[in-house]
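ok trying this again, last paste got cut off
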Amino acid sequence: MCDIDRQGEINIHISELSRKTGVSLRSLRYYEEKELLNPARRDNGYRDYTESDIERVRIIQLYFSLGLNVNEIMDFFHCAFSEEIKHQCLPNAIHIGEKKLEEIRTQIETLRKAEAHLESCLGSWKEMLRKGGGQNV
């Protein structure tokens, strides 16, 4: 369910955020607990998220998929979304980012080697079939 607030910004409920992002309600509440999300609260206690929270949740999911833990993501988010502490958090965010980038580059290199090996095997096997007509040798 969506509502429009007085400033014309579209607000969505947690169930809609979950549906749009594919992230469980439990995970969204956990992100809020860890201050990765900060929805407005209505008088009745319902959470109001904005359209920008959809992208924020997608970024959180991306960071998790890259192998960052919640504390590392919190460091990135506090650095990216908070002007007051930006200078203080930069060294740690840079360290974590560089470490993760190196891990990603290593994974890419491993995948390239696996790809080359598999291509070689497939080529050999196809050639064997062509020469032998598919019969066991």
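PB: full thing came through this time. The chain has a mean pLDDT of 85.
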